[in-house]
Amino acid sequence: MRRMAKDLPFRINREISWLSFNERVLQEADDPSVPLLERVKFLGIFSSNRDEFFRVRVATVRRMEKMGKKAKLILGDDPVALFDKIQKSVISQQKKFDKIYDHLLKELERNNIFMINERQLSPEQGKFVRDYFEDNVSPTLAPIMLDTAPSFPYLNDKSVYLIVKLIRYDKEKKAKHALLEMPTNVLPRFIVLPRTEDKKHYIIFLEDVVRYCLDDVFSIFEYDTIEAHTVKMTRDAELEIDNDVSKSFVEKIERGLKKRKKGSPVRLTYDNEMPKETLAFLINKIKVLKEENLIAGGRYHNSRDFINFPKVGAADLRYKYQHPLNHPLLESNNSIIKTLREHDVLLMYPYQSYHYIIDCLREASIDPKVKSISITLYRVAQHSNIVNALINAIKNGKSVTVVVELQARFDEEANIFWANKLQEEGAKVIFGVPHLKVHTKLFLITRKENGKTINYAHIGSGNFNESTAGVYSDFSLLTANPEITDEIKKIFTFYDDNLKHGNYKHLLVAPFGMRKRFVKLIQTEIENKKAGKDAWIIIKLNNLVDEEMIARLYEASQAGVKIKLIIRGICSLVTEVPGVSDNIEAISIVDKYLEHARVFIFCNNGDEKYYISSADWMARNLDHRSEVAVPIIEKRLQQELRKIIDLQWADNTKARILNTRQDNKYKQNDGKIKLRAQDEIFKYYSSLSLKTLLEKNKQS
Fold first, then answer.
1. Which domains does the chain have, with CATH numbers?
2. Global pTM?
């Protein structure tokens, strides 16, 4: 029962729903209960999200304008009308952003943190800025004189530029124009000035440092005054891969990356204080721009840099760091592999330490009984300890196979680098699967024990990335259960030989049956409800978009199945539709950690079924990616997973209700004690002891 958008009577457009999600991020910046510097950081997250939205989704909508009726079938809306809706929402959110930003500046000042510009510098600060400019900034600048340049320079995506106008009052001499790219790839966006005697913190934007010293940059010209205004280009980030059979897949990706860097303009944001003549000059030079691509903004662009706002001021202006907890079972044994012979282990980050994943691979790299390690890499840390452990395994004589997904958006260059490095060290590197993105989070360790080959596996919802594991909330299952590990081995066989799809009894594997298995699980709940049995479904996802799965949930709701949804991002399902979704409730949690885990729980007439997965319910995950959902079999771990989900559902502090209006109202506590799921989850894991876990194991 595959359905296109036109067949689904009740749905929220994915782009509009995504904008609603980003408004929830903006709410965090406006929440007075959030520490001040964290609120500033949320401004950066909001802006970073929006940039990617324009580079990917808005660019797609604009491309689809040429497709006519077919575009409406895919998008569910006319692309021109949809673009207008997007623009209205973006403009409305920008007004909120500006209001929040102005308020946060005042809050910062109340806490002795001052954002100042080049006109507000004291003589002492001015000397520091000029010295900083000469030592650090000046060597990186490459001014382009626009009036005499043979062509207008290419504006890089994500970069901030100053368009400079050198003015002579003598009308016989024309003004000169120049372009300066801000070197934010090598220098911090925010420069903290030396503390003053009044112990206040002063911070200046990098472009204001440049503005202060423009007379040095253009000293060879005769001028009376200088004007400088910021501009920023956002480009289409679609990665086009050509069909040249003479090129390797890596070469095709590299060629596609070069094309992306010169993608079509999606929007040009400019300082709304820019004089009309300067703007007209700019538009005339950038001939590819259309009026609808022009967005008036404030003095500063690239607000995503607020993610790295300086850590100044009192400690209570930031979230208190919570050190990741040790896992009682793993901490009580020097060998992780030995523990896994007896127990499955479920880890949740960032509440529990990620070092166990690295330690497990390191242990395997030096264990003389380990023969091979196979792993999938989608996004890894910039300085990856995971990769280091794999290289160490190669040096210790292990056979290492690495499946590297070269089409991980915006990580393609990094993945090519790691693939080349691993190949140089002697790993067998598989560059994904033709026509499928490998999105699984798997590793498989094979070990010889008493003449037999025993497999140990990892299946998770998050990437093998120790950096993001500190801020992304994810699950990892470590197991030696042959029902699971034998099927993980089949998946790695498929990666090596794409003709061997394999059959899977326990794992739900996309695109080879995951969709059908989820549909069957929903159908079982419908049949049980009709038979008068208990029936309910709990689902936690990043995004719920797939038309067929939404239709199935509507069908279950109509049958009386109670459904609870925890959706962080896009939710195209519409709640509160009489006779259709009466039995569906949906919330979204946006808090200090990014909710990234995917969890599925089905009542199954009391014999509850639990799964964690790397897959959202989107067509791309279910049909066009290699994905895995793994059953959580041990009762102890089922109870643990249910406890976490129950805490999240009970959140009445950071949970927003997802409804038809998309107004992101906070879930009310109705006089109950305030409960913040992310804090309560940390408390829950803090309370776990080895004795408690062993007792639960016996009960299981």
1. 1-58+85-111 (1.20.58.310), 116-247+264-311 (3.30.1840.10), 328-496 (3.30.870.10), 508-699 (3.30.870.10)
2. 0.91
